[in-house]
Fold this sequence. Notes:
By secondary structure, the chain is mostly beta strands. The chain has 5 helices and 14 strands. It is globular. It starts with 7 loop residues before the first helix and ends with a strand. Keywords: Signal. Residues 1-20 form the signal peptide.
Amino acid sequence: MKKLSLLFAFLLLISCKQNTSEEKIPVEPDNGIGDGATPPPVFSFSENIEEAHNKTAFMNKEAISFDINLKFGGKTRLEGKVSMITNSSKVRVDKSDGTSIIYDGKEVFITPETASTDGARFDIFTWQYFFAMPFKLTDPGTVWKKEKNRILDSIQYETARLSFESNVGDSPDDWYIVYKDTETNRLKAAAYIVTFGKERDKAEEDPHAIVYSDYKNFENVDLATTWSFHNWNEEEGFGDKLGEATLTNFNFFEPEDGYFEAPKAYKIVKK
């Protein structure tokens, strides 16, 4: 999960390059009913998902926080609070053990100074990205390719491949196979590789997937409150469940001065 760590790639506000989007299907000028009505907007695969989650309402807020309880193999991987500027330009993770990781837009810091930095950079970028993914699908540097329909739990879903232009974030070699719910247009799942700390060929030998469920409408924004993680491959799709996460206590807020800045006692987290 690098873009999962990844993820971070999106996070950065890079140039205003036009993203390579999916082909849009044209509509008839009169909606096919001959009344001269104004045609509805033509959305691409990625835009449909952002629209379904109400990206406009989400981005009109300055910051959001949520509590997360993440487990893999029955063991807690992360418990605490994730806070972020809604455009992912700054992120903060406050763990239940008293450790805090902060990304101020340029550097990643951890406090206290005695805290281990193992996995810190992954934690600061990966989990917030999985959360914000429905709102970041048309970010600069995203590249899309429509794919075949795929099956999840005996239901067929539209899918498309998301990749990134070079030099986008920590893990530009990451890719995702995004599943869209055909009834709601919401994000249903995403298969992915994690290239953070490894070569792409190696990462592609072990792809995984996240499934989003138990959606809650919070201040007119649709947010998944349950994630599950699975093995995944092109031939068989979703395999064994590996982990799960529960998200609670969503809160849009205006951060106080210094909230996303380095604390007094810290050390910088390198790659």
